[in-house]
Amino acid sequence: MTFQWPELLWLLLALPLLVVIYVWLLKRKKRAAIRYASLALLKEAMQGAAWRRHVPPILLLLALGIMIAAIGRPTATVTLPSQHETVIMAMDVSGSMRATDVEPNRLVAAQNAAKAFISDQPDSVRIGIVAFAGTATVAQAPTRNRDDLVAAIDRFQLQRATAIGSAIIVSLATIFPDAGFDVATFMYGAEAEKKGPKPQAAVKPVPPGSYNNAVIILLTDGQRTTGPDTVAAARLAADRGVRIYTVGVGTPDGKIVGFEGWSMHVRLDEETLKTVADVTRGEYFYAGTAVDLKKIYETLRTRLVMETKKTEITALFSAASALLAALAGLLSMMWFNRIL
């Protein structure tokens, strides 16, 4: 647990002083008390009320301590139900996805894992599909119709090149359709490497990972070969507060894959995928087998249903303080017919 205003916690130093004042008042009251005619009566009276008279002040002291802590605005890492309403699944359909190092091949394994993920999502969650290779397109707009999503995944066709940055931008355009992400005007190739994504209308950046209504799950098996810079595109997502969970499939050392009569060497760019996840406050996963891929999607399903995040718990501290103060007053009224 941490505090947003820890400098105010010095007020807790006043609590020991209150204890000293309380002890002094007790001694003063004892000296001023009416003398009992009999020591036996005095002993009997003291034994009957000694512990009770200290309970309300102790409770009140605890209430004050908790209230002071509340002033410091405490935050804690807690697990709460996720508020994600939309999940965009950006999936690589470049030619390298036909590699068989992940059985039966990378594409089929990714399709099967994605379908299982979709079927396990709550009915309230809308899911969209973005397919990307040399370009990125919306294969299925966000919908709650699971059959449409499965049909979109089954229609995947392998293509050449890999534009990971384009996939991120198209995903953002799907999440924010009115935000000015004009996907058709984005440039690809060598010129894009210099210029990066086309600047959007000025938007006040928000803390990365703070947008709770949507997330992006990006799956790829290679490295960017065309399109906007991947990390620059990820920063666009970070400025909008959208988390990107990246999933790498294949071999970081590289593999030669044949496609339409020609061969190519593909290598999983883990470093970039980790950077994308880090910039957007998401998480990177590596899948070396079909079983790994399935487990990753199961993990993502859990993460999207229950989310662990830092939350301010000032209200809980205030409620606990009020409850203890009320209890102190109630007990004092019951035992001594006074509030304190």
How would you describe this protein?
44% of the residues lie in helices and 20% in strands. With 340 residues, it is an alpha/beta fold. The protein is built from eleven helices and eleven strands. It has a six-stranded mixed sheet, with helices on both faces. The protein has a three-stranded antiparallel sheet with strand order 1-2-11.
Which strand order spans the largest sheet, edge to edge or round the barrel?
A: 5-4-3-6-7-10
What is the approximate shape?
Answer: elongated
What series of H and E elements makes up the topology?
EHHHEEHEEHHHEHEEEHEHEH
Radius of gyration: 31 Å
Mean pLDDT: 81
Category by helix and strand content: alpha/beta
Give the end-to-end Cα distance, rounded to a whole number of Å: 33 Å
What's the tally of helices? 11
Strand content: 15-25%
The biggest sheet, with number of strands, parallel, antiparallel or mixed sense and barrel status, is: 6 strands, mixed
